[in-house]
Amino acid sequence: MLTNSTAFGSNRLLNLLTDNCRQNFLGHCELVSINLGEVLSNPGDVISYVYFPVEGIVSWEKQISGSPYWVVTLIGNEGMICISLLLGINIRPCRAVVQKSGFAMRIPAAIFTQQIELKPALSLVLNRYANVVYNQALQIAACNLFHLLERRLARLLLMFQHRSQSDEIHITQDQLAKMLGVRRVGVTKAAGSLQRKNLISYIRGSVIIHDMNGLKAASCVCYEADNSTYNDMM
Amino acid sequence: MLTNSTAFGSNRLLNLLTDNCRQNFLGHCELVSINLGEVLSNPGDVISYVYFPVEGIVSWEKQISGSPYWVVTLIGNEGMICISLLLGINIRPCRAVVQKSGFAMRIPAAIFTQQIELKPALSLVLNRYANVVYNQALQIAACNLFHLLERRLARLLLMFQHRSQSDEIHITQDQLAKMLGVRRVGVTKAAGSLQRKNLISYIRGSVIIHDMNGLKAASCVCYEADNSTYNDMM
DNA sequence: TCTGTTATGTTTGCTAACGAACAGACGTAT
DNA sequence: ATACGTCTGTTCGTTAGCAAACATAACAGA
């Protein structure tokens, strides 16, 4: 039983609960390490565990017939995987892949469902988060429709930074391209442009953010919009 | 008190309830006419009523800062407006505009919340629909990212047809363009192409679908994908 | 019938992003 | 050291869709 999570960081959703409620919930959780490349969720699978990251980053990826996977959002210690269980749906809708190693609290699906029913405070918090997730989906839908690649790339980099609290992101242009649903060449061009503006620099497999405010200005409104939605709701 | 809704058509979500449960729920509803252009929901407003269309079509529209409104989905008698109340969120996230006149059952927000808590069967059905709505959002996000305008237009026309059970759609190219988040000229071009393939024809303010199967083939996978999601879940 | 408004058609030039292919630079393992 | 795989840079030709402007056609009301 885990009573102290500070040694591994903590999950911001669970932090919104009262100490009592959180401790009780954590008693049903297990701390697991999540490792780069690990797949926590496969679309169509029955949900066995719900994850609350406390460190590291997980990508939430959608695939539609005839197209590759692309990243809907990144999930760090501000969120959870997967919310659909809140609605009583026990089938995973998306793929979740670890993009930065770390740790997560995980809880068996059945116990999670039980806890939701027992603890109104818990479902209150998580319902609000579910609403954030829906709004994020609408935001990225609009973003895909209206915003240029360079801005979308800037947005994605900021999302990484925000969730890792680090200015260095270990990722290749090819991976970024797949996340954004575009060609690698497109990312090379956009990243080159951001570098020329002295906002970022990169070498083989890692991107360094030099000017966060500049990058915010170069990104689309969606980064700030998502953050606002989260802060307003939670 | 409404005990018989057949005279006005019915709502497919409510039809999934047992007769008893539905009759009881409808007792709290009021049948109202919804008229072309009427705005049922404005983003940011407090939710006063929840609507269950029984006839007609409502568009669910999102706006992000710096860009115009575009249509996330169309809602007919297969759906409801707005689901966020299911999660206890009483602020409207999107704009809802009547695109085809008809009727809807409406229920005050407070009573709706009460009913949800009282009737597990009701919340079961609506939770499933909420999941459909989330998946639709992901689908349109991918659609905006990967699919060509002509296919997206075909998709939208099929969505209209499906919800109105009519091959004639009263709408201008300019309105279709706004819905899709593109220029009117783009729609003129795409619609011209669909017409040349003998799938549709159109005159001043109305589009007629001549070959539904051909139009399905010309549309993107998203139309069928959304229908499958709905049918699998409900 | 005339006139103003709305809907559709078409053009020109431009840009973002695509697909495909290739070259060089950097690591790492043998 | 060499060889191989991976990552990044660059090119060429193509296309979808943008922005703006203008032309035609249909309808509605005075």
Written overview of the protein:
2 copies of one chain form a homodimer. Chain A contains 9 helices and 8 strands. Chain A is α+β, with helices and mostly antiparallel strands and 234 residues long. In chain A, strands 1, 2, 3, 4 and 5 form a 5-stranded antiparallel sheet that branches. Chain A has a 3-stranded antiparallel sheet with strand order 6-8-7. In chain A, strand 3 and strand 4 form a beta hairpin. The longest helix of chain A is centred in the middle third of the chain and has 27 residues. Chain A is globular, with a radius of gyration of 18 Å. The N terminus of chain A is likely disordered. The structure holds a DNA duplex (30 and 30 nucleotides).
| Cα radius of gyration of chain A in angstroms | 18 Å
Oligomer: homodimer
Chain-averaged pLDDT of chain A? 94
| Low-confidence parts of chain A | 1-5
- Biggest sheet statistics of chain A: 5 strands, antiparallel
What's a quick, concise take on this entry?
Chain A is of the alpha+beta class and 234 residues long.
List keywords for this structure.
homodimer, 234 residues, alpha+beta, five-stranded antiparallel beta sheet, three-stranded antiparallel beta sheet, 9 helices, 8 strands, 23% strand, disordered N terminus, DNA-binding
